[in-house]
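agent: user wants the structure for Polymerase/histidinol phosphatase N-terminal domain-containing protein from marine sediment metagenome. delegating to structure tool.
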Amino acid sequence: IIMIPLTVRSNYSLMWGTASVKQVCRHAQRLGYKPLALTDTDNLYGLWPFLATCKREGLSPIVGAEVTQPGGRLVRFVC
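agent: tool returned. relaying tokens verbatim.
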């Protein structure tokens, strides 16, 4: 069984994430993850840097986003 964290935010998530995409990918690699999800909040701005860094670091990217609904509830979409 492979555990894949699906709530991973980068500094592209304003007020939520602090690490750059590069830092997130390198940390995941050090922890031994092969697939890695990036689910920034309310945007996909980090998508291209994430895909490029995953390719360079030998990771399998999982693309996603958390979308804020009216009332503040977060819904996560991954593909």
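agent: one observation worth passing along. The first strand starts at residue 35 and ends at 41.
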